[in-house]
Amino acid sequence: MENTAETQNQDNSNITLVQQIERYTHFWKWFVFSLIACLFLGYLYYRYAERTYFTHAMILLQDEKQASGDMAGLSELANLAGRTSSSAAYVNDQTQIIQSRRIMRKVVDKNRLYLSYYAKGNIKSKEIIEENSPVKLILFEPDHPRLDTLAYELTISKTASGYMLKDEFHTPRKYTLGEKINSPLGPIAIVQHKPFEWSGDLTISYLPSEIMVNILRNMVEINPNEKVQSFALSISMTSASMEKGELVINALIDQYNSDITYDKAQVSRSTSKFINSRLDLVEKDLKFADSRIAGFKNQNDLVDLQAEAQQNMQNATEYERKLVEFQTQLYLADMLHESIKGQQYALLPSNIGLTDPSIQASIKSYNDMILERQDLLKSSTPDHPLVINISKSLEGMNQILQQSLGNLRASIQANVNSLQTQRKGAQGKLDRIPQQERSFKDIARQQKIVETIYLFLLQKREENEINASANPDNLKIVDHAYSYSRPVSPKLTYVGLASILMGFLIPFGILYLRFLMDNKIHSRKDIEELFGAPLLGEVPNSKEKIIESNSRTSMAEAMRIIRTNIGYMLGPREAGTGAVLYVTSTISGEGKSFIATNLSKVFADSGKKVLLIGADIRSPKVLNYLGLSHLRHTREGITQYLIDPRKSIENLIISEPTLYEFDIIYSGYIAPNPSELLMNGHFKGILDYGRKHYDYVIVDTAPVSLVTDTLLISPLADMTIYVARADYLDKRLLSVAKDFYVKGKLKNVAVALNDVDFQGGYGYGYGYGYGYGKENDGESEKSTIKKLLHRLNIFNRKNT
Fold first, then answer.
1. Same structural domain, 610 and 752
2. What's the total number of domains in the chain?
3. Disulfide: which of 607, 609, 727, 753 matches 538 by Cβ 3.0-4.6 Å?
4. Residue 778, CB half-sphere, CA atoms under 13 Å: how many?
5. DSSP characters for 387-403?
6. Using alpha carbons only, how large is the chain's radius of gyration in Å?
7. Contact (Cβ atoms closer than 8 angstroms) between residue 281 and residue 289
8. What distance in Å separates the CA atoms of residue 20 and residue 3, rounded to the nearest whole number?
9. What CATH number does residue 596 fall under?
């Protein structure tokens, strides 16, 4: 069961898809016409639309690290300040500079891009750059403030008789090249620029520089290389003129290079000025430091502080050594003097270290005489003349020796005093050396710092001068501006695809809106969803009013299907008991009379005896529809019988008029009170007569939503055929019929869907007329697309 339900749902989905496709393919002529029209319009657009071209260039920026190396001093100061930048930031900064309004304004002013020249063709104009223009506009007041707010355009035409000039402010007038004229821009003149011949119109347009700057900045795109460490920049723009695109990009690169060169030159000049000013100050500081060192040396009697300190140390040591020596000699002299003074004839110490040779000689002579006296005393008395002479000599020598020792001692003492003075002076100098050295180092350090800065600035000045003289390139042009000859817009492929797409979308959109806003019923699906009553069949739209006998048209087959379905719904009936069939609708114009008459015809063709009654006594149409309107003047109808039931019903019957095989009772004249007539019960007599004498009594009644006539006689019917016309009846009006059906106000209701457009895809797509070749009403066979969809539907059914 579940598989069956799934298969049914899939079949319904396939049918719905096919129906939706058929709804649109029915209007295939719309799509063909729209496609042809859009392709033609696309061709016109491609032929005459302004073409835009892509221009591209690539440059390589100078490495910022290398740039900083050229100015090593400033780089060192920047590094000390902690200011560093990445390559990506550098490239981004340079990109912003190239895109700046300042650079673009210089490009516009330098190349006079605020002036545009257009050579007019038959349909469109072509822009040319000023360099290739045969004439050139001269502004005599290019700096006037009025040019910042004015836009101006003029056209110069070359004719056989000369030149004609026109603008929106003046009528066409003759002009001589080079003539000075007044204009909204002030005094201007047009002069010959290129010596070649030209003809036609040339339009010269002026826009303020700021506006042109904005336009060009929006047109130019600058993109860095995707690699993070790359310094390459891609510069591109899209414009209607290849020459102008190349001019703008090349001028932009040149202006950027010139701008950087000027900035670097300005930096070099500023750096040189700064270095020279600092050199003047540092030179003064250096001279002051040198003079402080010279004054310190003069004040402290120094030449070389280290050498002076070493010399003073040596002198102090020498003075100390000599002082010890002299003090030793003084001690020895005192000791010897005491020895001589205390013992008159005693031996004196010899060779005790006295350095005076005369005293040593005198001591030796004195000791020799003492020894000689002692030798004499051994053999003689002290009174011996020799002894006395020697003693006298010894006394004399003793005094002389004492005197000599006194002189020696005085001489040594003088030396000691001198050495002590010298030693004290040397020691004083040694004591002052640390303070002098500290003071000297402070002065020397300041002098060294100033000297280092001075030498550093001298070096930087030379480097700056060399760098300024070298003037290296600030960037490398990898590719000059190049324009591709194939336009980027319009592209034939895109225009063709867009035309084809629009060719389908326009009719599709119109049809979609039409279907979306359509509130009419179209197919049995609408009846099944909104009504719920049984469906007898679908009658296709046709030019036939009454089917012919043995007709095999789709309309005839549809009526036969309805006839068969009615037989199933009514079931078997007893002999002599005819069936009464009401034919009604919601509103007029849905084809009640059409269904009633043709249903009478198909029943009659099947051998049944049929009576057609026109019960719509408010708006009778049966005779008019059958082409028998002339009979209303000679025959009576239902209205007359309802007024006077004594009339014979047989006299009301029009028996099998020409071309028709069924009998007719028409409605009669229009009565002022139709509802009251139908309520009097006499209409039942007509139906009873019909039941006895006919197999089928088909009653064409009034619309149920407009009047109550049908509801008054509805209990008398065996079956009510409710006619709903496709593409005509509003779906909302089906609620009226549904209400009658649910509440049983209409008896045994079944629906006949009239005027169905099967070619429009609203039906299930099977059609009628199987096996009979072409239809007699001139309808064409199914289209190839519909056959394919039909086969696809069958194939899907088989697969499921």
1. yes
2. 3
3. 753
4. 4
5. HHHHHHHHHHHHHHHHH
6. 69
7. no
8. 26
9. 3.40.50.300
The whole-angstrom separation of Cα 651 and Cα 608 is: 22
Measured CA angle at 78 (ends 73, 83), to 5 deg: 160
How many Cα atoms occupy the beta-carbon half-sphere of 504 within 13 Å? 7
Residues 732 and 588 in one domain: yes
Among residues 619, 611, 584, 603, which one has the least CA distance to residue 736? Answer: 584
User: Which residues contact residue 277 at a Cβ distance below 8 angstroms, ignoring those fewer than 6 apart?
Assistant: none
Instruction: Show the DSSP H helices in 49-171 as ranges.
Output: 64-70, 72-81, 87-98, 101-111
Q: What are phi and psi of 302, to 5 degrees?
A: -120, 145
**Residue 87 within a domain:** no
Show the tokens assigned to 283.
């030179």
- At residue 342, the pLDDT reads 59
Residue type, 667: S
Cβ-Cβ contacts under 8 Å for 783 (sequence gap 6 or more): 25, 28, 759
In total, the chain counts a number of residues equal to 800
Phi, psi torsion values for 338, nearest 5 degrees: -70, -35
In terms of Cβ atoms closer than 10 Å to its own Cβ (0-12, 13-18, 19+), residue 663 is buried
Do 404 and 546 share a domain, yes or no? no
Q: Residue 525: name the closest of 27, 18, 24, 26 by CA.
A: 18
What lies within 8 Å, CB to CB, of 275 at 6+ separation is 457, 460, 461, 464
Task: Give the span between the Cα atoms of 688 and 233, in whole angstroms.
Answer: 102
Beginning with the edge strand found earlier in the chain, give each strand of the sheet holding 135-139 in spatial order.
135-139, 186-192, 180-183
532 part of a folded domain: no
As a whole number of angstroms, the distance between CA 237 and CA 294 comes to 71
Q: Which residues of 709-741 are buried (b: 16+ CB within 10 A; e: fewer)?
A: bbbbbbebbbbbbbbbbbebbebebbeebeebb
β-pairing verdict for 152-159 and 162-167: antiparallel
Q: Which domain holds residue 383?
A: 305-470
Q: Is residue 587 part of a domain?
A: yes
The β-bridge relationship of strands 579-585 and 719-725 is parallel
pLDDT at 83: 43
| Confidence (pLDDT) at 472 | 60
CA 182 to mean position of chain CA atoms: 46
Are residue 444 and residue 578 in the same domain, yes or no? no
* The pair of three-digit structure tokens given for residue 182, joined into one six-digit string: 């007044």
CA dihedral of residues 777, 781, 782, 784 (deg, nearest 10): -150
Measure the CA–CA gap between 102 and 24, rounded to whole angstroms.
Answer: 59
Cβ pair 656, 662 in contact under 8 A: yes
Helix axes 305-342, 385-470, angle to 10 degrees: 170
| Whole-number pLDDT of residue 666 | 85
- Token pair listed for 534: 């049984």
Single-letter amino acid code for the residue at 239: S
Q: Which of 206, 224, 241 is the last residue of a domain?
A: 206
Helix (H) or strand (E) holding 683: helix 683-693
CA-CA distances (angstroms) from residue 542 to 38, 599, 721, 766?
34, 15, 20, 16
Mean pLDDT for each 10-residue chunk of the chain (800 residues)? Answer: 50 62 84 94 89 92 56 44 60 88 93 91 83 90 89 88 86 88 91 76 92 93 80 90 92 89 74 76 72 66 58 67 70 69 65 68 74 72 76 75 75 77 66 56 64 76 71 77 88 91 93 85 80 86 83 88 90 81 89 90 90 85 81 81 86 83 86 82 88 91 84 89 88 83 87 80 45 41 44 40
State residue 671's pLDDT score. Answer: 76
Closest Cα partner for 98 from 61, 148, 55?
61
- For residue 356, is it within any domain? yes
Structure tokens at 290: 């040198």
Please check whether residue 598 is in contact with residue 641, taking contact to mean a CB–CB distance below 8 angstroms: no
Residues 741 and 641 in one domain: yes
| H and E: helices and strands count for the chain | 22, 20
